[in-house]
Amino acid sequence: MTIVRPSRFLIYGLIDPRNRCLRYVGKTHKRRELRLQEHIDAARAGETTFVYNWIRDLLESDCFPEIFVLERIPVSDSWEDAERRLIRFWREPAEIEFPYTHPAQTRKSVPTIINSVNLTNIHEGGVIRDAEPADSSNVISLLLNHVDNP
Length: 150
Prior knowledge:
Layout: E1 8-16, E2 21-28, H1 32-44, H2 50-60, E3 66-74, H3 79-91, E4 100-102, E5 112-114, E6 116-117, H4 141-144
Parallel strand pairs: 2-6
Antiparallel strand pairs: 1-2, 1-3, 4-5
């Protein structure tokens, strides 16, 4: 069995498209589209954390969360420290004037407008959580309107 090591980590945000509110900060080594689909699948499966309750509310309104890269982390750096730092920063973004345009962080990214912040994170970050792998065939084209193609 070949073990594939990640080439980088992404600290990402989930945005409410109705009001451009940043609702969640997380990390992934996967493509953004796959991680977003995992969140949607978990919400549809009945997960009950705050983020999944919010996503279900969006889905009931025929909306989908938008995912964007907050920071790209090389594998040689600590994604745990980066995630904790960014969650702390965005919990109380005193230095940010809204609306804020977050600059693109990768060549596939575009600037993201954030009008406000109301994080649903229940952890301070840096926690490894198990998740079911997303079936990439479930990634619907509507999501790709908000997320760059891989």
